Amino acid sequence: MQTGGPSGGCLTEKHLDTPIDYEHLLASGSMMGSGGMIVMDEDDCMVSMAKFYLEFTVEESCGKCAPCRIGNKRLHEMLDKITLGKADEGELTRLRNLANVIKDTSLCGLGQTSPNPVLSTMDNFPEEYGIHVHDGKCPAGQCKALMHYIIDSHLCVGCTLCSRVCPVDAISGDKKTPHIIDSSICIKCGACMDKCKFGAISVQ
Amino acid sequence: MDIVKLTIDDKTLVVEKGTTLLEAAKTIGINIPSLCYMKLEDLNFENKPGGCRVCVVEVEGRRNLAPACKTVCEEGMKVQTHTVRVVNARRTVMELILSDHPAECLTCAKSGECDLQTVAQKLGIREIHYQGEQSHYKGDKSPAIIRDMDKCIMCRRCETVCNEVQTVGVLSAINRGFEAVVAPAFEMDLDHSTCTYCGQCVAVCPTGALTERDYTWKVIEALVDPTKTVVVQTAPAVRAALGESFGMEPGTLVTGKMVTALRKLGFDYVFDTDFAADLTIMEEGAEILDRLSKHLSGDKEVKLPILTSCCPGWVSFLEHNFADMKDVPSTAKSPQQMFGAIAKSYLAKKLGVKREDMVVVSVMPCLAKKYECTREEFSVNGDPDVNMSISTRELAQLIRNANIDFKQLTDEEFDNPMGESTGASVIFGTTGGVIEAAVRTAYELYTKKELKKVDFEELRGMDGIRQATG
């Protein structure tokens, strides 16, 4: 559950009994902010969510102080790296340090709260960050760069429907033989999976 | 005097109310690193936008860190200037600033004199953990100033000095967020703006974002050209500032060594701008007398008062902001330009050199002089009276390039006749000096008597209206 907009934070089921008022929300790591509330499930990627809010902050920064001007830009770039599967082992430590320093040193309220979506998702969903960085996977299946469509050769009957629907000709195979997807061409649009009548195509 | 008592790094101190943490810490020997903060002691002027966040400190009871340059001491405050939290924040912010700055130190004009470099060294930054996209802006090359805003760290010192000290009002922060930068309106080039090229922004820039336009290579090209007669004129300030570049005490007069060095560099004639300052003052002295006489005989059209025309920055300022007052300053050229005009007419004729074969170089303490010599009215058929103007720093660079051991040089004299001057030309550089010099000339022209006591000390200084009798 996300409350408070881009300056707010994410809460989990353990916060379900939290009364919705300024003090309690603040104490639980989020805030009232704009008063908005977004409910998300396991199909939403928390790293992408934090990145989405950072995009807003980068856009809104006035540019006067260095931590907000450059720091938020770097936070966004780091989150982007994580969602692209390009982050290394030290990324999460650096990410947390940078988020804390921006909060601690920024001149105005925007910079002092902009890392909240990062810090609260890191606190409440550490495993999601870990899986992105260490395993190169997105549990919610939202980070396209970390997804791979594959065809189960036991289920595929070679009907060619998927290769005909693929907009980038990434699927090859002869009639009545199992097809394969070239992941270097695949744009992960999901059209093949939608079309397959045999449930042979899945995301990993 | 209201006072407050506080502790900084567990030391108790008492300071005047209104003192900042940065200043208070300094009084007990704690130098908190800072970057955007700047204090112009002479003018008692401060730039403290609190933008760089390098000077942050921990204040007990405060949620976040406080910028020492902007936070005022309060009664009972407990401040820590180097806890792990503070040092980590300071280093991280510094790494962020460096991550958006080109790593061109080896070839940067400011290398060795760069505040960003100095603070990064002080904080011991050896690695930048937060690399990413760098901001890029269009380059701007005016006759006097080069702007490379990729190197801007948004300290806003130039903006403060341009707007609040010089009141020129050209530079201000534009764009927002990561694209924010200090520039003239609409990011136009300086030579399309109302910039006067006073050079104060260059003087306060902590990095290589604002630098003077370097003409040293053009000078070398002229010096090695056998068809050219190269004449140099040096302004009075240069002989007092040049020694500092070679490790001498600031202010040491090195006139003789400077002349020797210029000859060694290959200049054919070494002259003194003071010679032309004397010409300027004779013109200005005569002009003020002429205007006064006309005014006293009832001429209502004559413009009074007379203002100096020696400073090209001041002239541009007047042209841009008070165009209806352009006839108030004296009609006399500045000493630099008078020298150029005389060199390329009288001297060229005397030496039997064609005008186009003579190159006049000036060594000046001011960047606006670089712009002044490019002004169209100071040229004949496209040939400028003064071909190029270099700064004291550029002259020092030329001397170093030529492997000259400046300190070991013997003293030599200026060439004649344009190396001679009077005391009137020397006082040009001080506030009130030009009017004092003009009054000396006017006195003698009017009374036809020799002025016994030449000093009009009452005319010196910063007062708006100054009076003197002789």
TrEMBL record, chain A:
<dbReference type="InterPro" id="IPR017900">
    <property type="entry name" value="4Fe4S_Fe_S_CS"/>
</dbReference>
<keyword id="KW-0408">Iron</keyword>
<keyword id="KW-0371">Homeobox</keyword>
<keyword id="KW-0479">Metal-binding</keyword>
<dbReference type="GO" id="GO:0008137">
    <property type="term" value="F:NADH dehydrogenase (ubiquinone) activity"/>
</dbReference>
<dbReference type="InterPro" id="IPR037207">
    <property type="entry name" value="Nuop51_4Fe4S-bd_sf"/>
</dbReference>
<dbReference type="InterPro" id="IPR019575">
    <property type="entry name" value="Nuop51_4Fe4S-bd"/>
</dbReference>
<dbReference type="GO" id="GO:0010181">
    <property type="term" value="F:FMN binding"/>
</dbReference>
<dbReference type="InterPro" id="IPR001949">
    <property type="entry name" value="NADH-UbQ_OxRdtase_51kDa_CS"/>
</dbReference>
<dbReference type="Pfam" id="PF10589">
    <property type="entry name" value="NADH_4Fe-4S"/>
</dbReference>
<dbReference type="GO" id="GO:0051539">
    <property type="term" value="F:4 iron, 4 sulfur cluster binding"/>
</dbReference>
<feature type="domain" description="4Fe-4S ferredoxin-type">
    <location>
        <begin position="147"/>
        <end position="176"/>
    </location>
</feature>
<dbReference type="Pfam" id="PF12838">
    <property type="entry name" value="Fer4_7"/>
</dbReference>
<protein>
    <submittedName>
        <fullName>NAD-reducing hydrogenase subunit HoxF</fullName>
    </submittedName>
</protein>
<dbReference type="InterPro" id="IPR017896">
    <property type="entry name" value="4Fe4S_Fe-S-bd"/>
</dbReference>
<feature type="domain" description="4Fe-4S ferredoxin-type">
    <location>
        <begin position="177"/>
        <end position="204"/>
    </location>
</feature>
<dbReference type="GO" id="GO:0046872">
    <property type="term" value="F:metal ion binding"/>
</dbReference>
<dbReference type="GO" id="GO:0003677">
    <property type="term" value="F:DNA binding"/>
</dbReference>
<keyword id="KW-0411">Iron-sulfur</keyword>
UniProtKB/TrEMBL annotation, chain B:
<keyword id="KW-0408">Iron</keyword>
<dbReference type="GO" id="GO:0008901">
    <property type="term" value="F:ferredoxin hydrogenase activity"/>
</dbReference>
<dbReference type="InterPro" id="IPR019574">
    <property type="entry name" value="NADH_UbQ_OxRdtase_Gsu_4Fe4S-bd"/>
</dbReference>
<dbReference type="GO" id="GO:0051539">
    <property type="term" value="F:4 iron, 4 sulfur cluster binding"/>
</dbReference>
<dbReference type="InterPro" id="IPR004108">
    <property type="entry name" value="Fe_hydrogenase_lsu_C"/>
</dbReference>
<keyword id="KW-0001">2Fe-2S</keyword>
<dbReference type="InterPro" id="IPR050340">
    <property type="entry name" value="Cytosolic_Fe-S_CAF"/>
</dbReference>
<dbReference type="GO" id="GO:0051537">
    <property type="term" value="F:2 iron, 2 sulfur cluster binding"/>
</dbReference>
<dbReference type="InterPro" id="IPR017896">
    <property type="entry name" value="4Fe4S_Fe-S-bd"/>
</dbReference>
<feature type="domain" description="4Fe-4S ferredoxin-type">
    <location>
        <begin position="143"/>
        <end position="173"/>
    </location>
</feature>
<dbReference type="InterPro" id="IPR036010">
    <property type="entry name" value="2Fe-2S_ferredoxin-like_sf"/>
</dbReference>
<dbReference type="Pfam" id="PF02906">
    <property type="entry name" value="Fe_hyd_lg_C"/>
</dbReference>
<dbReference type="Pfam" id="PF10588">
    <property type="entry name" value="NADH-G_4Fe-4S_3"/>
</dbReference>
<keyword id="KW-0479">Metal-binding</keyword>
<dbReference type="InterPro" id="IPR017900">
    <property type="entry name" value="4Fe4S_Fe_S_CS"/>
</dbReference>
<dbReference type="GO" id="GO:0005506">
    <property type="term" value="F:iron ion binding"/>
</dbReference>
<dbReference type="InterPro" id="IPR001041">
    <property type="entry name" value="2Fe-2S_ferredoxin-type"/>
</dbReference>
<feature type="domain" description="4Fe-4S His(Cys)3-ligated-type">
    <location>
        <begin position="85"/>
        <end position="124"/>
    </location>
</feature>
<dbReference type="Pfam" id="PF12838">
    <property type="entry name" value="Fer4_7"/>
</dbReference>
<protein>
    <submittedName>
        <fullName>Periplasmic [Fe] hydrogenase large subunit</fullName>
    </submittedName>
</protein>
<keyword id="KW-0411">Iron-sulfur</keyword>
<dbReference type="Pfam" id="PF13510">
    <property type="entry name" value="Fer2_4"/>
</dbReference>
